[in-house]
Amino acid sequence: MCDMHNGFVCLRDTYAIMDAMVDHLRQEMECYGLMECFHGLKILDREVFEWLVTAETPQTVDAIAAAVDRERSTAYRSVQRLIEAGFLEREQVNYEQGGYYHVFAPRDPDEIADEMLRVLNDWYAKMGQLIDEFREEYELVGGETATAQTGAD
Questions:
Q1: 59-62 long-range contacts, Cβ below 8 Å, gap at least 24?
Q2: What is the pLDDT, as a whole number, of residue 54?
């Protein structure tokens, strides 16, 4: 629960979160817009993911870079963001003569969607908790104010 000094900060933060949520809900969101909303991914990350979804087999970073017309290092950073966000899987392919390379493929869409639902549910629970704290904080403040005014009479 917020103390009085921080209550205003919590209230301001709650309003900012609610305003951001309302803005997002008012926008028309594409399915892939969720990638940006939930994980802060970039447009390039979406392009990489979309291309990998259409690829018939897992792909190397070099193939990904060529497909999205970017430098290998830029494509690699995008792939890393997608892995960290849980959108891609990395598989090691071993050469017969020794050595290996990695290929990347999208994870199962149901698994990704289930994770996003868990994040949303956690966020929803946290917002409910903040709203309850707001209610308790300002019921308490209102009660103290009424008591102080009654006692002063």
A1: 59/103, 59/104, 59/105, 60/101, 60/102, 60/103, 60/104, 61/102, 61/104
A2: 95
pLDDT digits (tens, 9 = 90+) for 80-97: 999 999 999 999 999 999
* Residues pairing with 90 in the sheet: 104
| Cβ contact 61:75 at 8 Å | yes
The rounded distance, in Å, linking the Cα atoms of 79 and 55 is 15
Identify the residue whose tokens are 């929803």.
124
Enter the tokens of residue 118.
């868990």
Predicted TM-score of the model (pTM): 0.65
Report which DSSP code applies to 57.
Answer: S
Contacts of residue 13, Cβ cutoff 8 Å, sequence gap at least 6:
none
Contact 16, 133 (CB under 8 A): no
Structure tokens that stand for 127 in this block:
């917002």
* Strands of the chain, DSSP E: 88-94, 100-106
Question: pLDDT, tens digit, for every residue of 94-128?
Answer: 999 999 999 999 999 999 889 888 888 988 898 88
**What token pair was written down for 46?**
């979406």
